[in-house]
Write a structure and sequence with these properties.
It is flat and about 50 Å long. The protein is built from 4 helices and no strands. With 108 residues, the chain is an all-alpha fold. The chain has one domain. α1 packs antiparallel against α2, α1 crosses α3 and α3 packs antiparallel against α4. The longest helix is centred in the N-terminal third of the chain and has 27 residues.
Length: 108
């Protein structure tokens, strides 16, 4: 279970970074060269999605919950904005949804 969560967290980090770097270029006037690590990060994101242990649709559905939580962590650590209690509750709900999707018993 921890391996699955760790893989999801790494996948989310790769996607967020891959989208954040073009944001810096487009919105904050940073170097266009940020698009190179952004593209590499998004390629890593796509590859990491293939490592998840279940059907693609289930992986994508569950991944969304982890992405929401990681985005709130990013908000705090990178953007410097402290999450509100509503942010944290929403991220918690998203993680509960992810856990239900990924770890529910399934009939063989």
């Amino acid at each position: 279970m921890l391996n699955t969560l760790g893989l999801y967290a790494l996948t989310a980090l790769a996607e967020i970074l891959g989208c954040y770097l073009p944001y810096l270029w487009l919105k904050q006037g940073k170097s266009i060269w940020l698009l190179v690590p952004a593209a590499l990060s998004l390629m890593l994101f796509a590859w990491l999605l293939t490592l998840h242990p279940t059907a693609a649709g289930r992986v994508y559905a569950a991944y969304g919950g982890v992405y929401v939580a990681m985005a709130i962590v990013w908000l705090w650590l990178v953007d410097g904005i402290r999450p509100t209690s509503w942010d944290l509750v929403g991220a918690g709900v998203a993680l509960v949804g992810m856990a239900i999707i990924m770890f529910a018993p399934r009939g063989a």
